[in-house]
Write a structure and sequence with these properties.
Blueprint lengths: L10 E6 L10 E9 L2 E8 L3 E7 L2 E9 L9 E6 L3 E7 L5 E10 L2 H11 L7 E4 L11 E8 L3 E10 L4 E10 L3
Antiparallel strand pairs: 1-5, 1-6, 2-3, 3-4, 4-5, 7-8, 8-12, 9-10, 10-11, 11-12
Length: about 180
Protein backbone atom coordinates (compact mmCIF):
# COMPACT_ATOMS: atom_id res chain seq x y z
CA UNK A 1 0.00 0.00 0.00
CA UNK A 2 1.33 3.45 -0.89
CA UNK A 3 1.52 5.69 2.15
CA UNK A 4 2.48 9.04 0.66
CA UNK A 5 0.74 12.17 1.97
CA UNK A 6 -1.77 14.33 0.10
CA UNK A 7 -0.89 17.93 -0.72
CA UNK A 8 -1.08 20.14 2.35
CA UNK A 9 -3.60 22.45 0.60
CA UNK A 10 -6.06 19.51 0.62
CA UNK A 11 -6.21 19.15 4.43
CA UNK A 12 -9.24 19.66 6.66
CA UNK A 13 -9.97 19.49 10.38
CA UNK A 14 -13.22 18.07 11.79
CA UNK A 15 -14.79 17.46 15.17
CA UNK A 16 -17.74 15.10 15.45
CA UNK A 17 -19.99 14.32 18.40
CA UNK A 18 -19.92 10.68 17.33
CA UNK A 19 -17.33 8.10 16.30
CA UNK A 20 -16.53 7.67 12.61
CA UNK A 21 -16.61 4.28 10.94
CA UNK A 22 -13.16 2.64 11.02
CA UNK A 23 -13.41 1.59 7.37
CA UNK A 24 -13.29 5.29 6.38
CA UNK A 25 -9.65 5.65 7.44
CA UNK A 26 -6.33 3.93 6.79
CA UNK A 27 -4.64 3.48 10.17
CA UNK A 28 -0.82 3.40 10.32
CA UNK A 29 -0.35 3.37 14.14
CA UNK A 30 -2.88 3.16 16.96
CA UNK A 31 -3.08 3.37 20.75
CA UNK A 32 -5.96 2.80 23.17
CA UNK A 33 -6.20 4.65 26.47
CA UNK A 34 -8.33 3.72 29.49
CA UNK A 35 -8.26 6.18 32.38
CA UNK A 36 -10.79 6.59 35.19
CA UNK A 37 -13.98 8.00 33.67
CA UNK A 38 -12.87 8.06 30.02
CA UNK A 39 -11.36 6.01 27.25
CA UNK A 40 -9.81 7.06 23.95
CA UNK A 41 -8.36 5.68 20.76
CA UNK A 42 -5.65 7.64 18.95
CA UNK A 43 -4.80 6.74 15.34
CA UNK A 44 -2.16 8.04 12.97
CA UNK A 45 -3.70 7.84 9.51
CA UNK A 46 -2.35 8.19 5.99
CA UNK A 47 -3.38 11.89 6.00
CA UNK A 48 -3.12 12.94 9.65
CA UNK A 49 -4.84 11.57 12.75
CA UNK A 50 -8.10 10.53 14.40
CA UNK A 51 -8.78 10.83 18.14
CA UNK A 52 -11.96 9.22 19.48
CA UNK A 53 -12.66 10.25 23.09
CA UNK A 54 -15.45 8.57 25.10
CA UNK A 55 -16.73 9.71 28.51
CA UNK A 56 -20.02 8.31 29.77
CA UNK A 57 -22.59 8.83 27.02
CA UNK A 58 -20.48 11.49 25.26
CA UNK A 59 -18.16 10.89 22.33
CA UNK A 60 -15.94 13.39 20.54
CA UNK A 61 -14.00 12.46 17.43
CA UNK A 62 -11.24 14.77 16.12
CA UNK A 63 -10.17 14.11 12.53
CA UNK A 64 -7.29 15.76 10.67
CA UNK A 65 -7.40 14.40 7.13
CA UNK A 66 -7.68 15.17 3.43
CA UNK A 67 -10.65 17.37 2.48
CA UNK A 68 -11.52 14.75 -0.15
CA UNK A 69 -11.80 12.02 2.50
CA UNK A 70 -15.43 10.84 2.65
CA UNK A 71 -16.70 11.62 6.16
CA UNK A 72 -20.17 11.81 7.66
CA UNK A 73 -21.93 15.18 7.81
CA UNK A 74 -24.23 14.34 10.72
CA UNK A 75 -23.15 15.65 14.11
CA UNK A 76 -20.16 17.54 12.74
CA UNK A 77 -19.37 20.29 15.26
CA UNK A 78 -16.29 21.78 13.54
CA UNK A 79 -15.25 21.68 9.89
CA UNK A 80 -12.32 23.90 8.89
CA UNK A 81 -9.60 23.93 6.27
CA UNK A 82 -6.24 23.29 7.86
CA UNK A 83 -4.73 26.63 6.90
CA UNK A 84 -3.04 29.31 8.96
CA UNK A 85 -3.57 29.24 12.70
CA UNK A 86 -6.90 28.71 14.44
CA UNK A 87 -8.39 27.97 17.87
CA UNK A 88 -11.74 26.19 18.23
CA UNK A 89 -13.85 25.17 21.23
CA UNK A 90 -16.92 23.01 21.83
CA UNK A 91 -18.98 21.86 24.81
CA UNK A 92 -20.93 18.66 24.44
CA UNK A 93 -23.65 16.64 26.06
CA UNK A 94 -22.82 15.94 29.69
CA UNK A 95 -20.50 18.97 29.95
CA UNK A 96 -17.54 17.42 28.12
CA UNK A 97 -15.33 20.31 26.96
CA UNK A 98 -13.00 20.42 23.97
CA UNK A 99 -10.45 22.99 22.91
CA UNK A 100 -7.98 22.81 20.05
CA UNK A 101 -5.39 24.99 18.42
CA UNK A 102 -4.03 23.98 15.02
CA UNK A 103 -1.67 25.65 12.61
CA UNK A 104 -0.12 25.03 9.26
CA UNK A 105 3.37 26.40 8.93
CA UNK A 106 5.45 26.46 5.74
CA UNK A 107 9.17 26.55 6.51
CA UNK A 108 12.42 26.67 4.58
CA UNK A 109 14.09 23.46 3.44
CA UNK A 110 16.78 23.62 6.13
CA UNK A 111 14.28 24.04 8.97
CA UNK A 112 12.07 21.30 7.52
CA UNK A 113 14.97 18.84 7.41
CA UNK A 114 15.95 19.73 10.98
CA UNK A 115 12.40 19.12 12.27
CA UNK A 116 12.22 15.83 10.37
CA UNK A 117 15.54 14.69 11.84
CA UNK A 118 14.42 15.57 15.39
CA UNK A 119 11.03 13.85 15.06
CA UNK A 120 12.48 10.72 13.49
CA UNK A 121 15.24 10.21 16.09
CA UNK A 122 15.23 7.17 18.33
CA UNK A 123 12.50 5.69 20.50
CA UNK A 124 9.56 7.78 21.63
CA UNK A 125 6.78 7.53 24.20
CA UNK A 126 4.15 8.78 21.75
CA UNK A 127 2.98 7.37 18.44
CA UNK A 128 5.41 7.81 15.56
CA UNK A 129 5.04 6.81 11.92
CA UNK A 130 7.49 7.39 9.07
CA UNK A 131 5.88 7.41 5.63
CA UNK A 132 7.47 6.41 2.34
CA UNK A 133 9.40 9.07 0.49
CA UNK A 134 7.78 10.60 -2.59
CA UNK A 135 9.35 10.72 -6.02
CA UNK A 136 10.50 14.33 -5.43
CA UNK A 137 11.80 14.08 -1.87
CA UNK A 138 14.31 11.75 -0.23
CA UNK A 139 12.70 12.20 3.20
CA UNK A 140 9.26 10.74 3.77
CA UNK A 141 6.57 12.41 5.83
CA UNK A 142 6.49 11.89 9.59
CA UNK A 143 3.55 11.90 12.00
CA UNK A 144 4.08 12.12 15.74
CA UNK A 145 1.34 12.18 18.38
CA UNK A 146 2.12 12.79 22.04
CA UNK A 147 -0.58 11.77 24.54
CA UNK A 148 -0.78 13.09 28.11
CA UNK A 149 -3.51 11.80 30.39
CA UNK A 150 -4.80 13.25 33.64
CA UNK A 151 -7.64 12.11 35.88
CA UNK A 152 -10.18 14.50 34.26
CA UNK A 153 -8.49 15.37 30.95
CA UNK A 154 -6.42 14.22 28.01
CA UNK A 155 -4.00 16.37 26.00
CA UNK A 156 -3.02 15.45 22.44
CA UNK A 157 -0.12 17.11 20.63
CA UNK A 158 0.27 16.07 17.00
CA UNK A 159 2.87 17.04 14.42
CA UNK A 160 2.53 16.00 10.78
CA UNK A 161 5.15 16.85 8.15
CA UNK A 162 4.49 17.28 4.42
CA UNK A 163 7.83 17.13 2.56
CA UNK A 164 6.53 18.05 -0.90
CA UNK A 165 5.29 21.38 0.50
CA UNK A 166 7.92 21.93 3.25
CA UNK A 167 4.94 22.22 5.58
CA UNK A 168 4.33 21.23 9.19
CA UNK A 169 0.88 20.83 10.73
CA UNK A 170 0.72 21.18 14.51
CA UNK A 171 -2.40 20.33 16.51
CA UNK A 172 -2.86 20.62 20.26
CA UNK A 173 -6.19 19.47 21.69
CA UNK A 174 -7.52 18.99 25.19
CA UNK A 175 -10.57 16.95 26.16
CA UNK A 176 -11.83 17.86 29.65
CA UNK A 177 -14.47 16.10 31.76
CA UNK A 178 -16.92 18.18 33.77
CA UNK A 179 -15.95 18.63 37.43
Amino acid sequence: MISVRPKVAELAFHLFSRPIHPELIVVQQSRKIERGQYSAKVDITNCGHVVTFNAGKSTLCEVATSASQPLPTRRCLIHQSLKGSRTEEATCQGGLEYRTHFQLETVGAEMFWMVGQQLGKGPTEGLLHRFDASVRMALGAISYVNIETRHHSMLIQAIHTFPDDYAIVKVESIFTLPT
